[in-house]
Amino acid sequence: DTTNNTAAITPQQETPKTEAPIDTTKTVIGTSVKGNPITAYHFGAGEKELLFVGGIHGGYEWNTVLLAYQLMDYLKANPTVIPKNMRVTVVPVLNPDGLEKVVGTTERFLQKDVSSSEEVVISGRFNANNVDLNRNFDCDWKSEGVWQTKKVSGGTKAFSEPESKAIQTYVETNKPK
What we know:
The chain is of the alpha+beta class. It is built from 4 helices and 6 strands, in the order E-E-E-H-E-H-H-E-E-H.
């Protein structure tokens, strides 16, 4: 449901408070086919990492990108909700090229920026190589899949796309919980 994608994020339960300000940094974890940065934003300084990835389908799932930015806003405004032993990492969009097709930017946008063309929104599902990124991971990988009734590309091999390779490398290196 995308009708209420500007609602505030509220915690479901009381979480342990931190004693010091939250460390907030960002890291470019890779680049897209078109060379756009894929950025991870980090909140907290604990050893255990929680990873949230929005927008694997870029512009097709623009609402999950907005949700990721709302989560980041909430964490910035409420840094003490992150337990002292945790670090929260948010990758708002794994497919910046697909997002750009639909909203005109690879970064933060407003709902009013979303294309009204269904064809454009659907095209934003794929990266610039026309690969459906969630089919490019190494989980029963196939070069071709079906989305709705259409054949879609899974890439030339598992993790063949720079976007999926970026998140694979990040996960293997940082081992989020």
